[in-house]
Known about the structure:
The chain has 295 residues and is of the alpha/beta class. The chain folds into 2 domains: 2-162, 3-Layer(aba) Sandwich (Rossmann fold); 168-291, N-(1-d-carboxylethyl)-l-norvaline Dehydrogenase, domain 2, CATH 1.10.1040. The chain is built from 13 helices and 9 strands. The protein has helices spanning 12-21, 33-41, 50-55, 67-75, 80-83, 98-109, 123-129, 140-150, 165-194, 198-206, 213-216, 240-256, 262-279; strands at residues 2-6, 25-29, 45-46, 59-62, 90-92, 115-117, 120-121, 132-137, 154-161. The chain has a 6-stranded parallel beta sheet, with helices on both faces. Strands 7-8-9 form a 3-stranded mixed beta sheet. The chain is elongated, with a radius of gyration of 20 Å. Bound molecules: nicotinamide-adenine-dinucleotide. The site of nicotinamide-adenine-dinucleotide (NAD) has 25 residues, from α4, β7 and α7.
Amino acid sequence: MRIAFVGLGNMGAPMARNLIKAGHSLNLFDLNTTILAELAELGGHISDSPRDAASNAELVITMLPAAAHVRSVYLGENGVLAGVRAGTPVVDCSTIDPQTAREVSAAAARQGVDMGDAPVSGGTGGAAAGTLTFMVGGSEALFATLQPVLAQMGRNIVHCGEVGTGQIAKICNNLLLGISMVGVSEAMALGNALGIDTKVLAGIINSSTGRCWSSDTYNPWPGIIETAPASRGYTGGFGAELMLKDLGLATEAAKQAHQPVILGAVAQQLYQAMSLRGDGGKDFSAIVEGYRKPE
Ligand code: NAD
């Protein structure tokens, strides 16, 4: 299949690689010419603009940083919607607010293009390994078309409902993740300060009612889980800046829905303070450092 892929960053590049590996012909566009050249070596075709990439594509995929980029890549003069043919399926995999996802999809629908949202979880490791989870918002028909292609980049492809529901699923999950990481940090730091061996404490939590992903897979205390970023200086995981962005999306969406997100707002402020300290590039589990005396 000829696929246009726009946005070839930490996530988009490995996803595009998997599609090339699966035998698709890719039209590639990004502002970063180095990554374009790298992917062209693997057989991708470099396009001049999102419009150019989309013009002869049978499917368009985008993976961009935030809502402003999604608006400009789709609605701009040389954007996807200026080039895409009516009837072509389109999916945006960026994490953005549900409202923008719906608005851009409505603009696409006005010219006969069915566009859905499919944000992912699984991080850069999952993107490289082709084991991402895709949370898809869009029509049944669009989901049926997208499913086999998304399955070449991911393991769980879930239809969440109509357009925007993929983004809703993603931001609600990350709201909970941001909060649970703060909770586990507090519990681990308190236990340490009171004098229990943190490995014993983690063992108890992980076989008791406090157990969660932030405690049993990604524990923020160094040395508890060997494969977690906490055990390698909080490098190479899910950056605190990205968590801050996702909590911002959740609190903004909550405001629009007149829905309280009390703990989410507190968590957002904690990650904001972490970012101000210059630690936004660290893995988000380094939030625990705010609860420990520096060594
Ligand atoms: P990134 O910043 O590494 O990549 C974004 C790419 O988009 C860059 O290569 C950039 O040059 C390109 N870009 C920006 N504006 C453009 C434009 N106008 N035209 C063409 N290309 C443009 O970001 P990422 O880590 O790949 O994340 C992408 C999305 O996935 C984000 O919404 C992020 O929240 C989400 N996400 C990231 C992770 C992660 O672990 N990195 C995990 C899950 C979801």
